[in-house]
């Protein structure tokens, strides 16, 4: 079934500002380091029985989003080492292996979050860039999902003149075409109408 592009389809919202606005990665690094230290102090005060390791995900995520994967990984290493240093003499395990196992699990969890947030950040920026490029074209242009036959997105000129038309109907117009694959592997077609 071929579905038409909806009339109400609007261009994407402008890119949201990062957590720390125009201040850049240096303020992000400082704020996240302070937040990690604050969580570590609270973690120390509440004792080993109330494990607050999940709270470290907040500054790790903020750091990764604001400054990138490398800084997120660096803060993850520092956080795991800080946690080990704080609780090295307080753990109640019979064998120290289990204490270091807890530290390793915390570190691995932080690294997984860093990798996922970094990938999300890169994907959103790539999507934003590709849509920005599409919007700058002077001719009507749109992208069709070839498996579903849907018009996925179109630039302003396309929306003004052709919104609501089915992909099959649009295929009759002369266009320059380029095939590519979407991020999930589905085949797609970019059509720039040459009217």
State the strand order across the main sheet: 2-1-4-3
Q: What global shape is seen?
A: elongated
How far apart the termini lie comes to 27 Å
Radius of gyration, whole Å: 24 Å
Beta-strand content estimate: 5-15%
Characterization of this structure:
The chain folds into 2 domains: 21-132, no CATH class; 137-193, no CATH class. The protein has helices spanning 25-46, 57-67, 69-87, 96-136, 156-162, 167-170; strands at 141-145, 150-154, 175-181, 187-193. The chain is elongated, with a radius of gyration of 24 Å. With 195 residues, the chain is α+β, with helices and mostly antiparallel strands. The chain is 53% helix and 12% strand. The model is unreliable at 1-17 (pLDDT under 50). Helix 1 runs antiparallel to helix 2 (57-67) and helix 2 (57-67) packs parallel to helix 4.
Secondary structure: elements and pairs:
Elements: H1 25-46, H2 57-67, H3 69-87, H4 96-136, E1 141-145, E2 150-154, H5 156-162, H6 167-170, E3 175-181, E4 187-193
Antiparallel strand pairs: 1-2, 1-4, 3-4
In short:
This protein is of the alpha+beta class and 195 residues long. It has helices at residues 25-46, 57-67, 69-87, 96-136, 156-162, 167-170, and strands spanning 141-145, 150-154, 175-181, 187-193.
List its traits.
195 residues, alpha+beta, 2 domains, four-stranded antiparallel sheet, 53% helix, disordered N terminus
């Amino acid at each position: 079934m071929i579905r038409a592009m909806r009339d109400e389809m609007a261009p994407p919202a402008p890119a949201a500002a990062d957590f720390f606005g125009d201040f850049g990665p240096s303020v992000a690094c400082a704020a996240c380091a302070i937040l990690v230290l604050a969580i570590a102090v609270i973690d120390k005060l509440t004792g080993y029985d109330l494990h607050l390791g999940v709270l470290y995900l907040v500054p790790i995520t903020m750091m990764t989003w604001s400054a990138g994967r490398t800084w997120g990984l660096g803060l993850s290493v520092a956080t795991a080492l800080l946690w080990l240093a704080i609780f090295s003499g307080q753990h109640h395990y019979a064998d120290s292996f289990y204490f270091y196992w807890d530290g390793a699990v915390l570190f691995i969890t932080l690294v997984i979050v860093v990798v996922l947030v970094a990938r999300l950040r890169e994907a959103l920026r790539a999507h934003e860039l590709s849509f920005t490029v599409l919007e700058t074209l002077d001719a009507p242009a749109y992208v069709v999902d070839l498996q579903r036959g849907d018009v996925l997105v179109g630039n302003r000129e396309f929306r003004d003149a052709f919104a609501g038309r089915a992909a099959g109907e649009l295929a009759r117009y002369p266009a320059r075409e380029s095939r590519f694959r979407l991020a999930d592997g589905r085949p797609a077609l970019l059509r720039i109408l040459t009217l």
